[in-house]
Write a structure and sequence with these properties.
- With about 190 residues, the protein is α/β, with parallel strands linked by helices.
- The chain has 6 helices and 12 strands.
Length: about 190
């Protein structure tokens, strides 16, 4: 265990059902191993039902409902993927407001796979360069983002990756960006 993120508090935001388990668990372990406190937030209290692609996997206890949380309490945010997860999150005003708070404050954000759908509906994807699961390319371009096909891409504190195969690079970059802290360039205009 390192102390690279000692004293940092990182939010992991998912829907209550549909998050891709490996995209939640591995980054969560990485930030904790680096010394950060991590909290799992979801729209509802209770638990998060994770999936291995389309099959039910483990359930994880929710630390806090996102509507009771404030981005100002955290040093960074991770938005894991899974198809159903961000599709549900992007319909929850309290989740979108929470995500916008990180961009308004210039705090680092990590997003993987289908996670950028939440960024689109939060109005923070425009003007950014990022990667994602390939099927989101058109959605991101339509939202004013530049899409790139890379294992991991960093745009002023916004770390993005395409899929579970990219997790090693994603984990290393989110720890690096969370350690760096606030990025002035991260303060993208929020639509």
């Amino acid at each position: 265990m390192s102390d690279r993120l000692q004293g940092k508090k990182i939010a992991f935001l998912t829907a209550n059902e549909g998050v891709e388990q490996v995209e939640l668990v591995e980054p969560l372990e990485a930030v904790r191993e680096a010394g950060a406190e991590a909290e799992l937030l979801a729209p509802e209290a209770g638990e998060v039902q994770a999936f291995n692609h389309l099959d039910k996997a483990d359930a994880f206890p929710v630390d806090r409902a996102v509507g009771e949380a404030d981005a100002g309490e955290y040093d960074g945010l991770v938005l894991p993927g899974g198809v159903a997860n961000p599709d549900q999150l992007r319909t929850r005003p309290e989740a979108l407001e929470f995500v916008r708070g990180f961009f308004e404050a210039g705090k680092p954000v990590g997003v993987i796979c289908h996670g950028p759908w939440t960024l689109i509906d939060a109005g923070v994807a425009g003007g950014r360069t990022l990667t994602s699961w390939p099927s989101l390319e058109t959605d991101l371009r339509n939202a004013g983002a530049e899409w790139v096909d890379e294992e991991v891409h960093v745009d002023q504190g916004l770390v993005s990756s395409r899929k579970p195969d990219d997790l090693e690079a994603f984990k290393a970059k989110i720890v690096e960006e969370f350690a760096e802290g606030v990025h002035e360039g991260q303060k993208a205009s929020v639509n």
